Sequence to fold (166 residues):
Amino acid sequence: MRKSAVPGKLHKKPLSIWERMYIPAIVKGMFTTAKHIPKKRFTLLYPEVQPERPPRYRGVHRLTKDEHGNMKCVACFMCATACPSHCIIIKGAPAPEGWIDKNGRQREKYAEIFEINMLRCIFCGYCVEACPEEAIIMTGKTYPQAGYSMRRREDFIFDCEKLLNT
Ligand code: SF4
Ligand code: SF4
Fold:
């Protein structure tokens, strides 16, 4: 391309017949493709074939249970406070009668509602670090590995039931 006599306009060099048939460009493209065929593939048949992940990969959350099978969460809101995405919703309530703590005393509170909006979560792990009860962990599993198929927006709202069974 070179400058035209008319200011502001570029003068295009006309294409030759050979170039107008696009044959050099097609041959060049085919050559590039062929060059990559014998090379190692980086694509996977996801999700059937899972990539190798680093050992500290965080993955989907889980709410843990105590030795009596009750959720460990005491609704202290530490995780929700630490969460930079504000994606944790908790509603505390008095713990049901008979829920005892590790010292054998009746527990005061539990999370009647515990929800994580996974669409907003950035998987930073701050919630896990903030929890004084080890009540929330990250499983290292992806959604398909945890048995979830995420098709609708509602699928990304993880409530108590989902979080306790991930
Ligand atoms: S991983 Fe981070 S963004 Fe996700 S819920 Fe926990 S604190 Fe919030
Ligand atoms: S998960 Fe942990 S930090 Fe979050 S409310 Fe429950 S006990 Fe507190």
Summary: The first helix runs from residue 17 to 20. Residues 73-79, 90, 111, 130-131, 133, 135-136 surround iron/sulfur cluster (ligand 2) (CB under 6 Å).
